[in-house]
């Protein structure tokens, strides 16, 4: 008989399993330790979209638009020029050899062009474009993506070269005439008027005494007498008109002229070069006579020049004095150094050239179009002191925008705005007064030298950004922006990426910063409340990449914000095939806004992204491949119809509809061979990976069924027999979605009792991981365990195999909603759970639940 043990103890009751719910997966990823991450954040998210409506979905596919260039361009500038409705033009600049080419396209179709200007010409072979040599305004050979800025208002566009120094034209105002005027203002008895001409005193003209028998006097009589005396001198001509005498040297040379009226010149004076008061000027003079009004010789700020214009256009007579330009003064901008005008005269008809007032004609399709270019405003009054040259002259213009009826530019440390409602004029109209409509010229001041790089209109103010400071231009204490009220305020000193334009994203402005060769983004908030306008959040910018500071590898060169779909994307040169995606969502409260979503993830493609831009609800790309540069676009995920499953393949073409539009570079050729009973499709591009042909849900035959595939070349021969040339098909490249869940932890409160963190004291053994899906066709759950070379893979497929009623010709259920459970059986910190899908079928993950056993050897007292 066995002896009993002396050891006694208590038996613990068996414990049930615990579970953790992941109700949302739409907060992107985080680089924080797993136990500190916020709900909804994961470890890795590739080609998945954080939809606040549906959940975590496979990103939308890219749709093939057409071939833009036969050459694979890695460096180019592209901008959209929306004119009216759907008439959106692509303006592209590309380096070709030692020249720069400018093309304008509409839906891939070349436009008719007329160009004038230094170093530019139109070349029509093999396609129509503008060629610019090294003397042209459009000339750049490297990093074109950051050296140009195109803006437009309707059909009128302005293209800025951010490397071109501005200058004044060498043209000067005509020199003043050497003529002189004698103005007899008054007359009295027994007064002698003596003219000294070229140093020689002439016979005086004396009025009669009051006692003389003939004692009629008048200013005109005196003027005529003075003219007669001067005409008696060889080489001079004098003409009297009323009380004014015009004196001219016949050879046009200079001469001296003085007058003494024996009354301290209170009755008559010589008018030449300068007068002290405007009231000293006569109502008669020679047409074009110019004189300076200088009331205080010691103060040049009150000087101005006036020019006489006769009423009837005669050479000498009655007329008006008008403020004018100082003779010999440089007065206009060099239009060859200023932004280039791009004008759309008719659909696919453009005039390109400097704003020099030239009139150009272009005939196409039997119709002649004519356009007169605008001209840059010039100095029409004063000199450099009283009507200063715009401060951008002699510097490089870095950015330009249209703002409150003005054309605003930044150059050096200054922001200059044009005259109101005249975007081509940067000179005041007068030197004697400051008008509300006059141009505005402001200098940004900071502790360090500040070269401004970008301008951004925000509400009723204008933001200016330099490499190390941020500024705001707005009216001081009033709503009207004028030269008297405009102020520029420094908001903060934050180092930022000078090559990326800041952009508006909902109620904030986002701009990029450089952090040890990683890109971070910060945001300023500007919101309006019911009772007040908060304005900019001075010094309180938020780093929206603080939870993943080393995620965006490299310094971003391309980015854009889609305000209508609340998303931003960027690309760095370290991986041109990858986009970093920021999905955000703001929700309004009673008196403030709160951000309910801030998701970062990445999307990958098979081509190099060389340009991107949001247009409405679509994200457009230019992608470079070995066989050319192509255009494609991506629709907003929220716009997809839930009743019709989306086919998830990139560079997607819908056959046969692609052969019916106006674009010819997206046509597909189909040929059926009765001998082999196979159909072959020829694509408009070279395949760069597994490319499949799938029947569409609206096809009359089999639906959502892959009938053929290939990985290279341009042709795909269907594996499934039959004539598919009349079917409705989708053709595109497969791409993979991947989402790695954050590690499972038992939730607990931190020591401050303010947030939920993962409990690390005990041991959590994860048993299973349940995936909740919605309208999903296919995915794999991959479980990676430490120390195991082979991963466990569990497949979910909505279309069940080996089911009798699953006929390819009749099956209509391609997606399903439900759950899928995968076994894990591993410690929480020693395993990774990943959802993958390379299928063309849709995937939407709405949440997950893990189950496991948790053992805690001790209880926390904190």
Secondary structure: number of strands: 66
Average residue pLDDT: 90
Largest sheet: 6 strands, antiparallel
Shape descriptor? elongated
| Beta-strand proportion | over 45%
Q: If helices are DSSP runs of H or I spanning 4 or more residues, what is the number of helices? A: 1
Give the % helix: under 10%
Poorly predicted ranges: 528-539
* Computed Rg: 39 Å
Measured distance between first and last alpha carbons: 51 Å
Going by helix content, strand content and strand pairing, the class is: mainly beta
Task: Describe the protein in words.
With 862 residues, this protein is mainly β. The protein is built from one helix and 66 strands. A hairpin with a 2-residue loop joins strand 7 and strand 8. About 1% of the residues have low confidence.
Question: Which properties best describe this structure?
Answer:
6-stranded antiparallel β-sheet, elongated, single chain, 862 residues, mainly beta
Quick summary:
This protein is an all-beta fold.
List the helices and strands and how they pair.
Elements: E1 18-22, E2 44-46, E3 48-51, E4 55-58, E5 62-69, E6 77-84, E7 87-96, E8 99-106, E9 109-110, E10 112-115, E11 120-123, E12 129-132, E13 148-153, E14 156-161, E15 180-184, E16 192-197, E17 200-201, E18 205-206, H1 219-231, E19 236-241, E20 244-249, E21 257-260, E22 268-271, E23 274-275, E24 284-286, E25 290-293, E26 304-310, E27 316-324, E28 340-346, E29 349-353, E30 359-364, E31 367-372, E32 397-403, E33 406-411, E34 414-417, E35 440-443, E36 452-458, E37 461-466, E38 470-475, E39 486-492, E40 503-505, E41 508-515, E42 518-525, E43 542-543, E44 558-562, E45 567-571, E46 578-588, E47 593-604, E48 608-615, E49 618-625, E50 628-635, E51 650-655, E52 669-673, E53 678-682, E54 691-695, E55 706-710, E56 715-717, E57 729-733, E58 737-740, E59 747-749, E60 756-758, E61 763-776, E62 778-785, E63 792-797, E64 816-827, E65 831-837, E66 844-855
